[in-house]
Amino acid sequence: MRILVTVTKNPASPTAAPGTPSGISRLERILAIMIVAIVALALICFVAVIVATSAGVGANDGFSHGIWPAVFFVPYLGLPLAFVLIIVVLVSNGMRRSRAAKANAR
């Protein structure tokens, strides 16, 4: 939870010195929130499948009707997508820090 607070904090706070880089970009904040939302949705769907299986929904091919195919599909797509988004955030953060280090070196 602490990382989400750190990522979504407003970098342009009144205590920041004028002329300093703004820190975390809007894109990085949006990607971080998307990652959290996708992983949370995938985990909720995963738990729903476990609970539904224990409740007997899977008997007589019950998972092939209604919303259940989508519930099964969300973790298969969501977790790899969240992993790719984490890589994108890491690369973006590395590029931003590299640019800032080069700018400070001059």
UniProtKB/TrEMBL annotation:
Transmembrane segments: 30-55, 67-91
UniProt keyword annotations, A-Z: Membrane, Transmembrane, Transmembrane helix
Domain of life (superkingdom): Bacteria
Protein name: Multidrug ABC transporter ATPase
